[in-house]
Amino acid sequence: MTEPLTPLAPDVVNSFLDVVVRYLRTTVGLDAMVAAIAPPVTTHQTIAVALDFEGDVRGPVTWVFPRPIALELVRRLMSEPDPAPETATDGATELANILTGRASEVLERHGFRCEFGVPRIHVGDLPVGFAVRMTTANGPIDIVLSMSNTGRSGPRG
Length: 157
Hints:
Elements: E1 6-7, H1 10-28, E2 33-37, E3 46-55, E4 57-66, H2 67-78, H3 88-109, E5 114-116, E6 120-121, E7 130-135, E8 141-145, E9 148-149
Antiparallel strand pairs: 1-9, 2-7, 3-4, 3-5, 3-6, 4-8, 4-9, 7-8
Helix pairs in contact: 1-3, 2-3
C-alpha cells in the first residue's frame, strides 16, 4: 500500500530556506534573498544538482546554481584563486550537499526522520515542486522542493 504524501507545511519550507540563506553567507560569502516563487531556469551557465530524500520526507530537492557561485566554493575549499572552469560541477555538487545537509537539520527539528542521498547532476526537465528563486550578486539560485511528507511523523500540512 502506498503511503499518503502531502506537501511540506509553509513554516517548514520557510525554515528550510532561512537556513539556506544563512549557509550561503558562511559557505561562499554570498548574501542571498528569497525573491519569488518562480519557475526555475536552467541554461548552459547554470548547473542543476538533485538530492533525494527518504524517510518521513520523500522526493528530491533540486538546486540550480550559476557557475560563478559553484566556482567560488571551489576557490574557498581548495584555496585556489583561479579554479579551472570544469571544477564548477564539483563545486555545485558539494554546495548542494552542504546546503541540503544543513537544511535537513530543520526537517529533523520539525519532527521528520529523513536521510538524503548523494548529490547528482540533474539533466533534463526539472521536477515539479515548490520552486523558489533566490537573488544573489552572482546571479539567481533556484531551488525546487519536490519533497513531500509521508504522514508517518512530523507536522501535518
